[in-house]
């Protein structure tokens, strides 16, 4: 007897949908494709006038689809992949995500994928629909800005950051002390960066 081919079961994922009306709903999707005009979702709890059940939502109602970390999976450190740059993505409703994005994807008229900058973020992966994004700003570190503006050179920055790490580790080791001592140490670190002390 010939073996019957088995149908591949779609991967079911819990997601959080950030909607264009600034609402946020939890749902389950069996398949996600950013290019489809509608997203099939299963609501597990009531939302507005809708009871729990299966629905098709038009993509133009959705600002972004956020994928939470699967239960039982520990946070992983975000990979520094070549071509990924850090951005702050502001969506409708005033919500902001700090993510790493391939810069080439930002030109995609449908949208783009973002990966969380911090390892313990509740949503390590997010798909942003272009129509739901209000502002995209490139995130720049203070040290990079100081070098770019000529306030310090890269060697001064390196020494200042190393001094900052040393001060921070001493503060952590002490775990006590006044707020005044913490401010003094932080101020000293900034002076070290500016003056090139190391």
Structural class: alpha+beta
> What is the domain total for the residues?
2
DSSP strand count: 10
The whole-number mean of residue pLDDT values reads 79
Catalogue the unreliable spans.
4-9, 188-198
Helix content: 10-25%
With helices defined by DSSP (H or I, 4 residues minimum), what is the helix count?
Answer: 3
What amount of the residues lies in strands? 25-35%
Give Rg in angstroms: 23 Å
Separation, N- and C-terminal Cα atoms: 78 Å
What is the makeup of the main sheet?
Answer: 10 strands, antiparallel
Descriptive notes:
With 198 residues, the chain is an alpha+beta fold. The chain folds into two domains: 13-68 and 75-138, no CATH class; 142-195. 23% of the residues lie in helices and 32% in strands. It has three helices and ten strands. The protein has helices at residues 142-148, 154-174, 179-195, and strands at residues 13-19, 24-29, 38-43, 53-58, 62-67, 84-91, 95-102, 111-116, 125-129, 133-138. The protein has a ten-stranded antiparallel β-sheet, with no helix packed on it. α2 runs antiparallel to α3. The longest helix is centred in the C-terminal third of the chain and has 21 residues, at 154-174. Mean pLDDT is 79; it is low at 4-9 and 188-198.
